Amino acid sequence: MKPTSLRPPIIPPRATAAKLFLVGSTIGPVVDSLHNQCLLAYDIAPITVSISSTAPPLFCSSWVVPPLLGIAYVVLGYIIPRVIELVLNWQSGTVDVVDGDGDGYDDKRIHDKELQNKAVCAVASTALIIKLSEVLQTHDTISWWGHPIMLDSKLNLILMAASDAAQWAILDRTPVAFLAAIIVAFGGPLAELPFVANGFWHYLPEAADYLPLSGDLIKAGSIADNSDLALSSITGPCYFAVTMDAIALSRYIYTSSDGR
Protein backbone atom coordinates (compact mmCIF):
# COMPACT_ATOMS: atom_id res chain seq x y z
CA MET A 1 0.00 0.00 0.00
CA LYS A 2 1.39 3.41 -0.91
CA PRO A 3 0.12 6.97 -1.10
CA THR A 4 -1.47 8.29 -4.28
CA SER A 5 -1.90 11.97 -5.07
CA LEU A 6 -5.21 13.76 -5.42
CA ARG A 7 -5.73 17.38 -6.41
CA PRO A 8 -7.31 19.32 -3.53
CA PRO A 9 -9.81 22.16 -3.96
CA ILE A 10 -8.35 25.58 -4.75
CA ILE A 11 -10.03 27.10 -1.69
CA PRO A 12 -8.89 25.47 1.55
CA PRO A 13 -11.45 23.72 3.75
CA ARG A 14 -12.44 25.77 6.77
CA ALA A 15 -10.52 23.59 9.24
CA THR A 16 -7.34 23.74 7.16
CA ALA A 17 -7.57 27.50 6.71
CA ALA A 18 -8.23 28.07 10.41
CA LYS A 19 -5.28 25.94 11.52
CA LEU A 20 -2.92 27.51 8.98
CA PHE A 21 -4.04 30.97 10.06
CA LEU A 22 -3.46 30.06 13.71
CA VAL A 23 0.05 28.75 13.05
CA GLY A 24 0.95 31.71 10.85
CA SER A 25 -0.31 34.25 13.36
CA THR A 26 1.57 32.70 16.30
CA ILE A 27 4.75 31.02 15.08
CA GLY A 28 5.16 33.42 12.15
CA PRO A 29 5.82 36.58 14.20
CA VAL A 30 8.28 34.72 16.44
CA VAL A 31 10.32 33.52 13.46
CA ASP A 32 10.05 36.92 11.77
CA SER A 33 11.39 38.61 14.90
CA LEU A 34 14.69 36.75 14.51
CA HIS A 35 15.80 39.30 11.93
CA ASN A 36 13.41 42.24 11.84
CA GLN A 37 15.26 44.26 14.49
CA CYS A 38 18.17 44.80 12.10
CA LEU A 39 15.95 45.43 9.06
CA LEU A 40 12.99 47.58 10.00
CA ALA A 41 11.12 49.52 12.66
CA TYR A 42 7.39 49.26 13.28
CA ASP A 43 5.52 52.55 13.38
CA ILE A 44 1.97 51.36 14.11
CA ALA A 45 1.06 49.31 17.21
CA PRO A 46 4.64 48.14 17.91
CA ILE A 47 5.35 45.29 20.33
CA THR A 48 8.66 45.11 22.19
CA VAL A 49 9.55 42.48 24.78
CA SER A 50 12.75 43.08 26.76
CA ILE A 51 14.24 41.60 29.90
CA SER A 52 16.01 44.85 30.77
CA SER A 53 16.36 48.37 29.46
CA THR A 54 20.03 47.80 28.58
CA ALA A 55 19.72 44.45 26.77
CA PRO A 56 18.53 44.12 23.17
CA PRO A 57 14.82 43.26 22.91
CA LEU A 58 13.94 39.58 22.88
CA PHE A 59 11.01 40.14 20.55
CA CYS A 60 9.97 42.98 18.27
CA SER A 61 6.84 43.03 16.16
CA SER A 62 3.56 44.86 15.69
CA TRP A 63 -0.04 43.98 16.47
CA VAL A 64 -0.76 44.18 12.74
CA VAL A 65 1.74 41.39 11.97
CA PRO A 66 -0.05 38.30 13.40
CA PRO A 67 -3.19 38.64 11.24
CA LEU A 68 -1.09 39.50 8.19
CA LEU A 69 1.09 36.43 8.65
CA GLY A 70 -1.96 34.28 9.39
CA ILE A 71 -3.45 35.25 6.03
CA ALA A 72 -0.04 34.87 4.37
CA TYR A 73 0.33 31.26 5.52
CA VAL A 74 -3.05 30.36 4.03
CA VAL A 75 -2.19 32.05 0.73
CA LEU A 76 1.44 30.92 0.47
CA GLY A 77 1.01 27.44 1.86
CA TYR A 78 -2.24 26.43 0.21
CA ILE A 79 -3.77 28.77 -2.38
CA ILE A 80 -0.71 29.65 -4.49
CA PRO A 81 0.37 26.00 -4.93
CA ARG A 82 -3.20 25.08 -5.90
CA VAL A 83 -3.32 27.86 -8.50
CA ILE A 84 0.00 26.70 -9.97
CA GLU A 85 -1.24 23.11 -10.19
CA LEU A 86 -4.44 24.23 -11.86
CA VAL A 87 -2.87 26.62 -14.37
CA LEU A 88 0.00 24.32 -15.35
CA ASN A 89 -2.02 21.11 -14.95
CA TRP A 90 0.62 19.66 -12.67
CA GLN A 91 0.03 16.75 -10.35
CA SER A 92 -0.53 17.80 -6.78
CA GLY A 93 2.42 17.51 -4.45
CA THR A 94 0.26 18.41 -1.48
CA VAL A 95 -2.32 15.73 -0.85
CA ASP A 96 -1.49 12.07 -0.52
CA VAL A 97 -4.07 9.48 0.42
CA VAL A 98 -3.25 5.90 1.24
CA ASP A 99 -4.55 3.40 -1.30
CA GLY A 100 -4.27 -0.32 -1.72
CA ASP A 101 -4.51 -3.41 0.49
CA GLY A 102 -3.41 -3.80 4.05
CA ASP A 103 -3.83 -1.81 7.23
CA GLY A 104 -4.85 1.60 5.93
CA TYR A 105 -4.97 3.12 9.40
CA ASP A 106 -1.33 2.26 10.14
CA ASP A 107 -0.19 3.45 6.72
CA LYS A 108 -2.00 6.76 7.14
CA ARG A 109 -0.61 7.20 10.64
CA ILE A 110 2.94 6.66 9.36
CA HIS A 111 2.33 8.98 6.41
CA ASP A 112 0.91 11.71 8.66
CA LYS A 113 3.91 11.36 10.98
CA GLU A 114 6.27 11.84 8.03
CA LEU A 115 4.43 15.00 6.99
CA GLN A 116 4.49 16.24 10.58
CA ASN A 117 8.25 15.70 10.82
CA LYS A 118 8.79 17.53 7.54
CA ALA A 119 6.65 20.43 8.73
CA VAL A 120 8.65 20.73 11.96
CA CYS A 121 11.93 20.57 10.04
CA ALA A 122 10.65 23.16 7.56
CA VAL A 123 9.77 25.62 10.33
CA ALA A 124 13.10 25.01 12.08
CA SER A 125 15.12 25.44 8.87
CA THR A 126 13.19 28.61 8.02
CA ALA A 127 14.07 29.99 11.45
CA LEU A 128 17.74 29.21 10.76
CA ILE A 129 17.59 30.92 7.36
CA ILE A 130 15.91 33.98 8.90
CA LYS A 131 18.62 34.06 11.56
CA LEU A 132 21.28 33.74 8.84
CA SER A 133 19.87 36.86 7.20
CA GLU A 134 20.29 38.70 10.51
CA VAL A 135 23.91 37.54 10.82
CA LEU A 136 24.73 38.55 7.24
CA GLN A 137 22.99 41.90 7.63
CA THR A 138 24.84 42.80 10.83
CA HIS A 139 28.36 41.68 9.87
CA ASP A 140 30.80 43.07 7.32
CA THR A 141 32.98 39.96 7.33
CA ILE A 142 32.70 36.29 8.22
CA SER A 143 35.48 33.81 8.91
CA TRP A 144 35.75 30.65 6.79
CA TRP A 145 38.44 28.22 7.92
CA GLY A 146 40.35 31.11 9.41
CA HIS A 147 40.08 33.29 6.31
CA PRO A 148 38.02 36.49 6.47
CA ILE A 149 35.41 36.92 3.76
CA MET A 150 34.07 40.37 2.98
CA LEU A 151 30.29 40.49 2.81
CA ASP A 152 28.21 42.64 0.49
CA SER A 153 24.61 42.55 -0.69
CA LYS A 154 25.36 40.31 -3.68
CA LEU A 155 27.27 37.72 -1.66
CA ASN A 156 24.57 37.82 1.00
CA LEU A 157 21.95 37.01 -1.63
CA ILE A 158 24.08 34.14 -2.98
CA LEU A 159 24.47 32.64 0.50
CA MET A 160 20.77 33.05 1.22
CA ALA A 161 19.79 31.53 -2.14
CA ALA A 162 22.06 28.55 -1.48
CA SER A 163 20.38 28.04 1.88
CA ASP A 164 16.96 28.20 0.25
CA ALA A 165 17.99 25.67 -2.39
CA ALA A 166 19.29 23.30 0.28
CA GLN A 167 16.04 23.61 2.24
CA TRP A 168 13.97 22.78 -0.83
CA ALA A 169 16.23 19.91 -1.95
CA ILE A 170 16.29 18.26 1.47
CA LEU A 171 12.67 18.71 2.54
CA ASP A 172 10.55 18.99 -0.59
CA ARG A 173 11.92 18.60 -4.15
CA THR A 174 8.56 19.21 -5.83
CA PRO A 175 8.41 21.67 -8.76
CA VAL A 176 5.15 23.16 -7.45
CA ALA A 177 6.73 24.22 -4.16
CA PHE A 178 9.86 25.52 -5.89
CA LEU A 179 7.89 27.65 -8.35
CA ALA A 180 5.59 28.94 -5.61
CA ALA A 181 8.56 29.92 -3.45
CA ILE A 182 10.31 31.65 -6.36
CA ILE A 183 7.17 33.66 -7.16
CA VAL A 184 6.80 34.70 -3.53
CA ALA A 185 10.51 35.55 -3.22
CA PHE A 186 9.99 38.23 -5.86
CA GLY A 187 6.41 39.19 -5.09
CA GLY A 188 6.53 39.08 -1.30
CA PRO A 189 8.69 42.19 -0.82
CA LEU A 190 6.55 44.07 -3.36
CA ALA A 191 3.45 43.17 -1.34
CA GLU A 192 4.92 45.15 1.55
CA LEU A 193 4.91 48.41 -0.41
CA PRO A 194 1.34 49.45 0.54
CA PHE A 195 2.17 48.94 4.21
CA VAL A 196 5.47 50.82 3.97
CA ALA A 197 3.81 53.62 2.02
CA ASN A 198 1.06 53.95 4.62
CA GLY A 199 3.43 54.06 7.57
CA PHE A 200 2.91 50.63 9.13
CA TRP A 201 6.69 50.07 9.19
CA HIS A 202 9.82 51.36 7.50
CA TYR A 203 13.13 49.77 6.62
CA LEU A 204 16.24 51.07 8.35
CA PRO A 205 18.63 53.07 6.12
CA GLU A 206 21.40 50.47 6.43
CA ALA A 207 19.04 47.72 5.23
CA ALA A 208 16.93 49.63 2.69
CA ASP A 209 18.89 48.82 -0.46
CA TYR A 210 16.06 48.05 -2.87
CA LEU A 211 13.62 50.50 -4.44
CA PRO A 212 11.56 48.13 -6.60
CA LEU A 213 10.66 50.24 -9.62
CA SER A 214 13.87 52.24 -9.81
CA GLY A 215 16.73 49.77 -9.47
CA ASP A 216 19.83 51.21 -7.83
CA LEU A 217 18.93 54.84 -8.53
CA ILE A 218 18.21 55.27 -4.86
CA LYS A 219 21.95 55.09 -4.21
CA ALA A 220 22.58 57.90 -6.64
CA GLY A 221 20.19 60.15 -4.77
CA SER A 222 18.13 61.01 -7.85
CA ILE A 223 14.93 59.75 -6.26
CA ALA A 224 15.56 60.69 -2.67
CA ASP A 225 11.95 61.78 -2.28
CA ASN A 226 10.88 58.14 -2.62
CA SER A 227 13.59 56.64 -0.42
CA ASP A 228 11.05 56.02 2.33
CA LEU A 229 9.53 53.37 0.05
CA ALA A 230 12.76 51.37 -0.10
CA LEU A 231 12.78 47.71 0.87
CA SER A 232 15.54 45.26 1.78
CA SER A 233 16.75 42.84 -0.89
CA ILE A 234 17.63 40.17 1.66
CA THR A 235 13.94 39.69 2.45
CA GLY A 236 13.36 37.94 -0.90
CA PRO A 237 15.16 34.72 0.09
CA CYS A 238 13.43 34.92 3.48
CA TYR A 239 10.07 34.87 1.72
CA PHE A 240 11.22 31.76 -0.17
CA ALA A 241 11.93 29.96 3.11
CA VAL A 242 8.66 31.08 4.70
CA THR A 243 6.78 29.74 1.67
CA MET A 244 8.49 26.38 2.05
CA ASP A 245 7.46 25.98 5.67
CA ALA A 246 3.93 27.25 4.93
CA ILE A 247 3.59 24.58 2.22
CA ALA A 248 4.94 21.86 4.51
CA LEU A 249 2.50 22.89 7.24
CA SER A 250 -0.34 23.01 4.73
CA ARG A 251 0.36 19.46 3.58
CA TYR A 252 0.37 18.13 7.11
CA ILE A 253 -2.68 20.09 8.27
CA TYR A 254 -4.77 19.25 5.19
CA THR A 255 -4.05 15.52 5.21
CA SER A 256 -4.54 15.20 8.98
CA SER A 257 -7.78 17.22 9.08
CA ASP A 258 -11.21 15.63 8.87
CA GLY A 259 -9.80 12.11 8.78
CA ARG A 260 -8.11 12.42 5.36
TrEMBL record:
Coiled coil: none annotated. It is a multi-pass membrane protein. GO terms for cellular component: endoplasmic reticulum membrane. It is found in: Endoplasmic reticulum membrane. The keyword Lipoprotein does not apply. InterPro entries: INSIG_fam. It holds the Pfam family INSIG. Keywords: Endoplasmic reticulum, Membrane, Transmembrane, Transmembrane helix. Belongs to the INSIG family. PANTHER family: INSULIN-INDUCED PROTEIN. This is Uncharacterized protein. It comes from Discostella pseudostelligera.
